[in-house]
# Entry
Amino acid sequence: MSSHAWRPMRWMSVLLWLTIGWPALFYVVRACLTGWEVLSETSRLTVTFVHTVAFAFGTVSVVLPVALLLSHLLFRSDLPGRHLGVWLVVLAAVIPAPVRLVAWRAFLGSLHWWPLATGPVGIFPSASNLALAIFLESALVMPWAVLVLGSASRWAPTRLEEDASTMWPGFGVWCRATWPAVRPTSALAAGVVLVHAWSDIVVADHLRILTFAEEVYLQTIAGGEDRQARSVVATLPGSALLALIFVFLCPLSDVRTATLDPTQPTYVYRLRRWRSAALCFVWATMTVLIAVPMAGLIARAGMEYGAVTSPQPHWSWQALASRLVHACAEHWTLLGRSAVVAGGTGAALAVFSTLAAWLGRGHGLLASAQWAVAASAWVLPAPIIGLAIAEGIQVLLRLPGGWLTAWALYDHPSPLPSMWALTLRYFWVGLAIATALVRQIPRNLEEQALVDGGGVWGSLYLLVPLLYRVAAIVCLTTSLLCLGEMAASWPAATPGFETLAEHVFKQLHFGAEPELAALCLVLTLLTGLFGLPIVGWAGQGWQISSLLKTAKRL
# Structure
């Protein structure tokens, strides 16, 4: 951007994100001052480090090759039924993580394969627990990795691929033309999977994998500020390393806009004799991601125990329908709260991320500052974000005008603390999506508006037809992510305001009971209907070609 009028707005965006994120900085500094002695506890840190590394890198090693192959088969090949496969991947992605964990526990519990929590946790995690934890974590993050890699594969230069196809067979085209274009995004996708395993607690808590995030969660449950501070300090070296990696990865994953041509169709790989094997692989994966866990939910929700007519446990449609109706009637407030938190957070992230991506385009220092803030919040274990927001609210209560903070964030059930935590948590996701899309908008549109005397607001008005598409994609994607997030929001949540993800996570400690399975089925149906609009965007590479066509009309 060439106009000096943009400069105040650019730095206002940094000021905005520092205003939102100051509790995390304040809480981390305060924890360092009181809990730095934990760095001398080598035995404790060794156990946590071994569990975290085994869990995180095991998940990456499973997810990345499978997601890379599956994404190219669904997005770039002539595989029959690939559009249905994309829809199923999107459906798996929009189902909240706690719900899918309940589904897997219901299925594995019916086969008596769910491990029991017995004995102390050693320096090495139990082989069966670790293998199951890696499998479940891979199943949770696989759909999003497939969507990211599949959309990025459409950004490969089509003309280069067609030229390569005249000299090499299909795999040679992929190696020489497609892979160099998607390699940076593949590295970024691997980093996203790594951070998810590093910072989340949904799987680790139930299978006794003592990761750094799980350590923070356990110390928070146990109580005591000193214990919390020590667990937070233990996570900081790894979080700092991951933040640096992401700050350097994000510029490497820039979309190569010079090669994008909206009028040229995407190159399609012909499977030929590999079609049958590809079909078997794709539908076997879809069965694992969707069919098996959903079958476990339906089977558990319809079980009837101790009936008068049949003392033996058996499955019935009447029991399933009764529990579904009861779940809707009893938990509709939880559904409403979750929708408010997810929708409000998605809307806030849509506005903030789109403006941040637009203002940071072509301004290296500002973009680096935004990526640094976003990456620092993204790599922190999720419970730390919630604890930081709760601590920040306590600070605001002691300031002049604290009565207003108490009314909005403390004294009454309110969605605002949870939305604050989730906004900080998923700013990186929104900024990454918005940046990838905003960089497709030609610069000459803004320059023409400035030359014509439109000024800052005139150029923004001209670009609204493009930016609202970006904001809509960011809003929908982050809302779906927030719908299943509880690790970051529960420490900051006000008493009496519990989301559905938090309720499911707590009830799962008592097992996948039929009532809980029915509630998860209701949430699955609702999120499936809510996530349908994303199918078109996922199947068209996040509407990049549509953005470019709209830009050409303008």
